[in-house]
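From the thread on structure requests for the teaching lab: each student submitted one protein with a one-line request. Submission from student K.M.:

"Model F-box and leucine rich repeat protein 13 from Canis lupus familiaris, tokens only."
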Amino acid sequence: MTPELMIKACTFYTGHLVKTHFCIWRDIAIPLINEENILAEKMEKAIEYDNFRLQKYVFRLWHSYAAGQKKLLTEALLRIRKMCHHYKLIITLTKWRDKARYEYKKREDELMLKHELQLRKWRSKVKVAAKEEPIPPEHSLSKASLLGGIPECDISLLPERAVSQIFYYLTLRELVICGQVCHSWMLMTQASSLWNSIDFSKVKNIITDKYIVSTLQRWRLNVLRLNFRGCLLRSKTLRSVSLCRNLQELNVSDCPTLTDESMRYISEGCAGVLYLNLSNTTITNRTMRLLPRYFPNLQNLSLAYCRKFTDKGLRYLNLGNGCHKLIYLDLSGCTQITDSAMEMLSAKCHYLHILDISGCVLLTDQMLEDLQMGCKQLRILKMQYCRLISKEAARRMSSMVQQQEYNPNDPPLWFGYDYEGKPLTKQEITPLKEDEEITVTDSIYSGEEEVV
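Reply posted by the TA:
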């Protein structure tokens, strides 16, 4: 270390010591000036800050309380306004209803008076015409005799309820023809009540698929009953039935084009069906599996002469919630059904009232025992041409039901199958003669009668 650095270090150390000791001496020697004033200022600042925080806290509480009260007052005011508006609407609607009833009654009275006057005028003309020229009995209802009275009786002047009742008895074809008469008649045929029930079976030879689809699309919310019996329709047309969400009754019996795929679309769209007729169709177990899933409220089911499904398909009716509300079940002509399927069915369908198993040649006495145990509410039982069911079992069953039809004979050849359920050829099937009658022995008897 050089002497210069040593001198610098000593000088710095000496200066630091002097400064430190001088500051300490100054603090001790010189008393504090105005210490009380400084403390007073600090105390004032502390008090002022504390008061500010207290005011801020109190203001927040007051603000939240005021906001809550304002919200309650606003809600109360809105409720009062709604009540006032509601009462105003009630008063307005009541006055409008009274006035509408008065006008409707007045119009009804005027129409009735007008109709009576027209009827009296027509009767007077008929009497005058009858006095002037006697009409023979065979021509009493001819066009000439009524020519003077018909033009004056306008059906469009009748009340809407009377017009609907008149058009209710017309078929679909006649209804369409009436709609083409004039504009007023067309408006009368567009009443929604006339399209609650549509029967396409009576016009199946002249109606087109396009018209069926357009009709269902237009009246899909009003249709409650549909009848397609014997109609030869395309799959797309059958799928359009799913548009009728409020459908309650559906008859697709004898439809050769009905498939499981079509029934899937119908089932998904029409879950409220209560009556379903699938007689003489080609449905399989796939359709039988859809019924309990989409039709839990089904009450009437007809599967007559449907020979494509098996015992497994009939057991599907009891899956999950199942079709346990069935009241009417028609299995006539289902030659593939055995006792095992009927055992499962009778164990679940406790509300069954009517059962038709005519032509089910594989059913035995065991089936009747299962019915006695499970179907306590059974009232009508039809067992025509069930050769494996004994007369003793049928007699015991007759005491449990109100009406029973039983015939142990083999099914006739015109049924299309033999006593074993095997289909017959065209040569083996003999058609009925015109003078030949079908006789059924011991067809209906009660519990007091004996089976011969």
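TA comment: The mean pLDDT is 82. Strands lie at 197-199, 225-227, 249-251, 275-277, 300-302, 328-330, 354-356, 380-384, 403-407.
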